Amino acid sequence: MLSRAAGYDAEPPCAAFALGLSWQIWDPYPPDGARVEWRQFRQGNEVAGGSGESGVVAARGCGVYEVSNPGEADVRLAIRIAADTLP
Length: 87
Prior knowledge:
Elements: H1 2-5, E1 17-27, E2 36-42, E3 45-52, E4 54-60, E5 64-68, E6 76-85
Antiparallel strand pairs: 1-4, 1-6, 2-3, 2-5
């Protein structure tokens, strides 16, 4: 679980969980039109999270996050993730 990897002793309630992530395509560089698409699957719903050669996704609550490459060429990403609980 991400919450344990972030140093929490117990999994926080979904309503108190917050996630932020940023991404940047680093291969190919410059991206030359390459892009990725993020989606969040939560409580039976699919929500678009963001798309492009770089960006930020901010979400609250539990869910599954998926990134896909709609293009034909392979890409490599740098991804940074921040997770915390909210009061």
